[in-house]
Amino acid sequence: MTANMSLPVDVPHEAGLRLEMILERIQRFGRPGLIPLTDYADEQTYDFLLVNPGWTFAQWRAVNWEVARQLRERGYRVQLVRVEMAEFFDWLAEFKLPNTPANRAQFVAWKAMS
Q1: Fold of 11-23+34-113
Q2: CA–CA separation, 27 and 63 (whole Å)
Q3: Where are the domains of the chain?
Q4: Beta bridge mates, 35
Q5: 82 and 88 in contact (C-beta within 8 Å)?
Q6: Model-level pTM?
Q7: Distance (Å, rounded) from C-alpha 40 to C-alpha 45?
Q8: How many angstroms separate the CA atoms of 66 and 99, rounded?
Q9: Cα→Cα distances 101→7, 9, 105, 106, 109, Å
């Protein structure tokens, strides 16, 4: 289990912070046709791929889903892209890539387009 399980997370506040960052990027780079957001399949995948994230899987997912909801409310097309550990590591092996945040983002983008 993820550490800090008992610490509460202010979901609306945290989602608002993430939303602000996403909207700033959109302002800088233009409105995308699709906004893919990572949706880790389960707690094991989340814990393994996000070492010491500070939130539990349930807290992270609640924030993520709230961000998706708020983006959709603003008229953006959002896709929650499910990341399963085995599929992700198969993809890394196929392209001989290391497990990095940038490659996870690339995987999510690739999967959203598939």
Answers
A1: Putative cytoplasmic protein (1.10.3100)
A2: 22
A3: 11-23+34-113
A4: 78
A5: no
A6: 0.85
A7: 6
A8: 27
A9: 25, 23, 6, 9, 12
φ, ψ for residue 92 (rounded to 5)? -60, -45
The sign one gets for the Cα dihedral 109, 101, 62, 75 is negative
- Residue pair 103/97 in contact by the 8 Å Cβ criterion: yes
> What is the per-residue pLDDT across 17-55, written as a single tens digit (0 to 9) for each?
999 999 999 999 999 999 999 999 999 999 999 876 789
Mean pLDDT over each residue of the chain, to the nearest integer: 92
One-character DSSP codes across 21-81:
HHHHHHHHH---S-EEEEEESSHHHHHHHSSS-SS-HHHHHHHHHHHHHHHHHTT--EEEE
